[in-house]
């Protein structure tokens, strides 16, 4: 903690963490409930982005179907709740486990391909699940399903917005802590080495496929967790949770924040939501009523980021990126 | 029997539309190693151009014909402003930048043409039916799509197989460094191929417009199908794209035309009509996954 | 007679109509440097790829340390004690020199499914890694990113990585490619000291280095091994002179 205060990144993290913890009190004091809802979404999306960062940022696997885990986690909660299984103690592990199993299955198939084929096959598998969701008449098909939130009797009431927010925030903290350990662990070194040069890693004696599959599975499980949380936040599930555009958004967030950095996914999510919320009023300033066209500005911003700002926001905070050599 | 024949023709028609979209994509992919998510936007722009130009000229054929050079111009501009900077980048940068292009084009359409969808009316000579076999009437416009799509597919096959440009394209798809060594102006070839892809995409968009209606984001979902097609066929392979497009077209039509009745034998009517199109989509992705597991670079893709 | 460390029998590899490896048999004994020479396109690298498992042969067998490894995957062969360097430098460019060697050490420390312990401060990796760097003369560059090392230093780093697992067989694919004369001399000295307790298969175009280092030489032409013997025998072999050495200065 003392050490963290010495770097710019440390200061920013601590300041933001303090602000994040105090957010429910602030939104209550200023009577801005809407902001707490956005805050909760930012936290949940940060978890999803952090889970994608494990494979995309550290592993170099461009998975273009990560939103599918929103869907799997969410539908696990929704479907179980629909059939009267409302206990979070059942719903949440089922959601995370289902996501992990699906990740292991599609990872085993997808990781046999490389490059563009990998991008496309992960996209195809997420579309597959998306259309399963669309075809499930019993669970609302295209229109989705209103669900009741998971119950943790005697422990926490998820309908309490502040309590739910703090729970999500605590889970985000855990996920980030795990990411930090993960990145510099023996496993993380193998994964990052394979990103750098997978042929070399194989000839050194690492069965690269197994390590990648394990990372893919862990990433899927944490993605499932974010889906469980998202469904509980919205009290609603629908196939739109896992549309491919959402998967694209997640990639944007991870790159925007800084690939292969511990806090990058958080910066990226915050920036993404801030851009979304602020571009509208800013554009309205120039020309009234045009704010709803914010993506006409956001699109070119993405292009510029892709072309000129690969280090992402985290690199603005100085210091060597965690995704680099990591020696120290 | 007639019903079956008509549905098969519908599948061919859909397959040809998707082939037009996939052809440009597989070439840009194969030659420039470019993941272009915005290809669906060119398809959408083709449909909107057609709507404007048809209204303007008050002639379906003339408007449709004018759409093609307009699409070529748009393609050239997009290539010069954004795409050219992406060739040397990794796939992730390309995904990100062209994802940005999608957002841009979707909003641009909303600004220019408004949020409501448009429809393009068919001229009288295309709105009836033709008797393609004795006693087998078929909608004239769909038949026209098959004819135009078929002719374009043949032209493309001829161009790729028989002309010098086509030879360069094939050489480029299998070995990019080689065309540079042949002393060919790569930039020109890339712009040409990208522009050609834009024209094909726009042609698909304008032909689909009277059937599917013109709306924002119309290119997004069909883009994914086009990707599926080129991945099944093998990136860079026109032949592979054609075969895959036909297969996907037939699966899609099968799901819409036959699966509902099949499902109704054990599902409720409502559940069956929701599930059937979804199942046909799921089937398409399963086919793709199966092909990739069997052949990780597609049916006719480059072997390592 | 003791079985050689590596023995290749009747290896065959076709690419379409082209026979890249044409019924090649050779062996590498412990304690020797066996050089593989031949003109460009003779199939030397293709042969190495089959030894390491990156390519599967169409026929023939590879035995290593008493085991038939023809069907084993690359990582399994590596863990049996086979290490290689690449013709085109292949290091982990985003990692420091020390990390590169540490990862190579890690490859031989059982599985790496360890998610929490900090590999940056694992002495069981770091101590041998630093020793490995020192052995090739790179200790001063331990904290430099591999991408920022000079070409010659990267080639030395490759050797350090290959040696990290204490391999019984080293497959070195043109370790001197692109090196200046000084760097080459240092590399020759380094390689000469490596053959004790292990075998080395050396592919090299630098004939001076080959004839100074090699105990035996095999000449590969169009995928076929046309001769195997001591440097003197190879020098005198008329077929070799005809096929290969005729157009190059012959070291004496």
How would you characterize the overall build of this protein?
The complex is a heterotrimer of chains A (328), B (304) and C (252). By secondary structure, chain A is an all-alpha fold. Chain A has eleven helices and two strands; from the N terminus they run αααααβαααβααα. In chain A, helix 2 (33-58) packs antiparallel against helix 8 (208-234) and helix 2 (33-58) crosses helix 9. Chain B is mostly helical. Chain B has one domain (2-218). Chain B contains 13 helices and two strands; from the N terminus they run αααααββαααααααα. Chain B is globular. Chain C has helices at residues 44-52, 74-80, 97-106, 123-135, 151-163, 181-192, 207-213, 231-236, 238-243; strands at 6-15, 18-28, 33-37, 59-64, 67-68, 82-85, 169-173, 199-203, 216-221, 224-229. In chain C, strand 7 (169-173), helix 6 (181-192) and strand 8 (199-203) form a beta-alpha-beta unit. By secondary structure, chain C is α/β, with parallel strands linked by helices. The two termini of chain C are 33 Å apart. Chain C folds into two domains: 1-81 and 167-252, P-loop containing nucleotide triphosphate hydrolases (Rossmann fold, 3-Layer(aba) Sandwich); 92-166, no CATH class. Chain C is built from nine helices and ten strands. Classes of the chains: A mainly alpha (328), B mainly alpha (304), C alpha/beta (252). Chains in contact: A-B, A-C. At the A-B interface, helix 5, helix 9 and helix 11 of A face helix 4, helix 10 and helix 13 of B.
Topology:
The complex is a heterotrimer of chains A (328), B (304) and C (252).
Chain A lengths: L7 H22 L3 H26 L9 H15 L5 H23 L4 H21 L9 E2 L14 H24 L1 H19 L3 H27 L1 E2 L6 H14 L6 H23 L8 H14 L20
Antiparallel strand pairs in A: 1-2
Helix pairs in contact in A: 1-2, 1-6, 2-6, 2-8, 2-9, 2-10, 3-4, 3-8, 4-8, 6-7, 7-8, 9-10
Chain B lengths: L1 H31 L6 H19 L2 H22 L9 H23 L10 H4 L1 E5 L2 E4 H23 L1 H11 L1 H6 L4 H27 L5 H16 L4 H20 L1 H6 L4 H26 L10
Antiparallel strand pairs in B: 1-2
Chain C lengths: L5 E10 L2 E11 L4 E5 L6 H9 L6 E6 L2 E2 L5 H7 L1 E4 L11 H10 L16 H13 L15 H13 L5 E5 L7 H12 L6 E5 L3 H7 L2 E6 L2 E6 L1 H6 L1 H6 L9
Parallel strand pairs in C: 3-8, 3-9, 6-7, 7-8
Antiparallel strand pairs in C: 1-2, 1-4, 4-5, 9-10
Helix pairs in contact in C: 3-4, 3-5, 4-5
